[in-house]
Specification:
The protein has 144 residues and is of the alpha+beta class. The protein has helices spanning 2-36, 38-44; strands at 48-54, 62-63, 72-73, 82-85, 93-98, 104-111, 116-118, 127-134, 137-143. It is built from 2 helices and 9 strands; from the N terminus they run H-H-E-E-E-E-E-E-E-E-E. The chain crosses the membrane at residues 12-34.
Length: 144
């Protein structure tokens, strides 16, 4: 009788170990897919980029394009709704946000290189247009 109890305990231990190992492998595999497959990574950590290269100082508001699109739509719950200016950008920039009707949604705000601005009040699934004023230089702008 003791041999049967020992056999059952070792069987349960082996089965528990196999389940734990399988769960760990699935978790690691999912992590690697999200981290290394661009289209999957873009779903969970969306980011678009605009590059503005101004030969002269921009005195008037100019529309910027993120990933060659004129508008920006926060189309999933994973957007942080944050604008970041890359640390190697020329200087600070002024931005403002308009909706599809051309109405001002967010008035002029300043972002310095290496810093971010949160835009939590922007709504999901609506098109927004970003405009920039900046001094002479090259600027890398990320929306996450």
């Amino acid at each position: 009788m003791n041999g049967g109890v020992y056999f059952m305990k070792s069987r349960i231990t082996i089965l528990s170990s196999i389940i734990a190992l399988a769960l760990a492998l699935v978790t690691i595999s999912c992590y690697l897919v999200v981290q290394n497959v661009g289209s999957v990574h873009q779903i969970f950590f969306p980011m678009v980029t605009a590059v503005v290269d101004s030969a002269d100082s921009m005195e008037e508001w100019e529309r910027i394009s993120f990933n060659d699109k004129n508008d920006l739509t926060f189309d999933s719950i994973f957007w942080d709704k944050e604008i970041t200016i890359h640390a190697n950008s020329g200087s600070y920039i002024l931005l403002r946000v308009k909706d599809v009707n051309g109405d001002l949604v967010v008035d002029e705000f300043q972002v310095s290189p290496g810093n971010s601005a949160k835009l939590d009040w922007l709504k999901n699934d609506e098109k927004y247009f970003f405009e920039i004023k900046a001094t002479k230089g090259k600027f890398f702008i990320n929306a996450t």
